[in-house]
Amino acid sequence: MDKVGLIGLGAMGLGMAGSLRKANFDLYVYDLRSDLTKKFAQAGGTACQSLDELASISDVVVSVVVNAAQTEEILFGTKTSSGIVDSLKPGSVFIMCSTVDPNLSISFESRLAEKNILYVDAPISGGALKAASGEMTMMTSANLAAYQKANDVLEAMSGTVYRLGDRAGMGSKVKVINQLLAGVHIAAAAEAMALGLREGVDANALYEVITHSAGNSWMFENRMAHVLAANYEPLSAVDIFVKDLGIVLDMARASKFPLPLSSTAHQMFMQASTAGFAKEDDSAVIKIFPGIDLPKGSQ
User: How many domains in the chain?
Assistant: First the structure.
């Protein structure tokens, strides 16, 4: 079985690594936080001391870092450091799972092809719990050779692998559209709950009614539960949607396509970020509304 390397043991990456381990892959992991890699390796798999070590060993590399800038740095380095592109095995495959500008993903594929490295554009969705259970969604696009090499790894990490094109870009475009909906739905959910609180509606009663009515959404049901519990520990932080809705707007701006709801939601997350809630759970966008008494949870 191919040797698989995974970079990034955050909320999603840790679950994905666990799924690969359960599938009995020969697994190698790396994260800047060495305590995470050591802890993970104690239960199976191998902790690598450097990205180059992981790249030189692996037949398939899965990257689960925060953004395009980190992906660029991992692959191609910076002015003061080298990337892993020269350490990757010819014929190996790099699976990119971050939410990035689709044009950047296309560029990554082209630059890696020059080194005879295959590439899968593979943004992910579903949250940490689905990542841990191997049930997340992967929105992928790649050429046939990359799919053939990466297929077993993709299937082990996810419940559904959507094949959306024969080259990079389309997977990222679909993910960007998903993030448009996710961000707008969270912002709308926060606005609705804030209005209810301002009007004196019991928060728990409002949540119960809406989650059993036509106005419900997955994001209302999931994120307003965080608000009711007064739990803003970040599973997905406010600044994630500052970034992702920024990518949404950039993609639309390039084709002069209007996105009024996305623009408003982006401003709401920007306001929450600058108000000091950048690293809190994205449901903390509700904190931008004045004159409301938020639930205190069980504390």
Answer: 2
